[in-house]
Fold this protein.
Amino acid sequence: MTDPHPTADPATLTARARDLDDADPLGAFVDEFVPSGEVVSYLDGNSLGRPLRALPDLVTAFIEKDWGSGLIRSWDAGWMQRPVALGDRLGRIALGATAGQVFIGDSTTVLLYKAVRAAVAARPERTEIVIDDDNFPTDRYIVEGIAAETGRTVRWIHADPASGVTADQVREAVNDQTAAVLLSHVAYRSGWVADVPGITDIIHSAGAIAIWDLCHSAGVIPTELDAWDVDLAVGCTYKYLNGGPGSPAFGYVRTELQSRLQQPIQGWMGTADVFEMGPSYRPALGIRRFVSGTPAIFAMLAMDAMLDLIERAGIDAVYAKSIRLTDFAEQSLGVHVLPHGARLESPQRGAHRGSHLTVAHPAFRDLTPVLWEQGVIPDFRAPDGIRIGLSPLSTTFAEVDEGIRILAEELARAAAAQK
Ligand SMILES: *Cc1c(COP(=O)(O)O)cnc(C)c1O
């Protein structure tokens, strides 16, 4: 598609933002979120999604009914099944996973540990774990720790920080010594979208287990975990799934693998008959065995409510708006920010891009708190990147326009003060 506004000036861009909001089929969803006070432009929905207006009532009902009068009986009336029931729902609405393969568990970090550790144990004769050096810190640290714990070696793929891991790089990195490969579907800094089905195929050809981190795609970019033949996946629920700070992560384990994997944190909640309290651990059949301790029931309320919205909008429509938002942001950065010497450190428009963009400039570290003070809230990513995350159901084009214009003004001011 050719761009109808190839050399837009600032006024045209602002008018265009208004047109895009007017024509936005998902525009009304913005009203479903709690108004964010003095915030002018929230550009970090990929780090912490905004709360839903419906939440206070849901929380009150939960406290009074399920918890308050149901009390311990609520474990039998649904809480025990909740990690798997909500996992099924998430799988159906956003992940392309049929029932019995997704669960809500511990934090992302802990679930990554469980996934990688179980995969390595399932390939006892193999000596290497593969990951890229631009993956999110916790992913890298977990893999380093498991390698040290199990006497394996980490094989690092060197990823271009402005794009991401390619199929060719994975093909070069895997061999008959590879136990498992851990990669991110969407790179947390650049927004690069990895070729999950293609790379998973390459990993399988080497006889290794493919583990995907979906933190920056779950709830915004549809995945087809079953069709793509993914082995294991882990993802956040407080980013595009708006579960709230520290809401528990989800895990996916392909049905055929479930009985062949032994997860390392074998707690009572993953056993075949929890209240038998038997003398030794007997894992439940199915996905339940990947649960460890008492599930965080209270912390699942917000993500469940967000799934209502995503279901109503349709994940494909959410993704379509994500593309429109990132395209607009790229154009706006091109008009307002890049002329001041900033660089786009994300893939250009097209299929290889998630729902966020990173733009870099040496002044950005000092500029970020100045922007926050003015109600423009992006994320700073060391050493000099500002990350603009666009959560489709809660973000308007007008606020993207406004936020980027203020960013440009502050950057111009900082540059002038340097002289
Ligand atoms: C946000 C994020 C995490 C966060 O892990 P927590 O255990 O929730 O702190 C992990 N990996 C990636 C790729 C992320 O984007």
Remarks:
- The chain has twelve helices and 13 strands.
- The longest strand covers residues 178-184.
- The pocket of pyridoxal-5'-phosphate is lined by residues 107-109, 136, 138-139, 184, 188, 213, 215-216, 236 (CB under 6 Å).
- The longest helix spans residues 315-336.
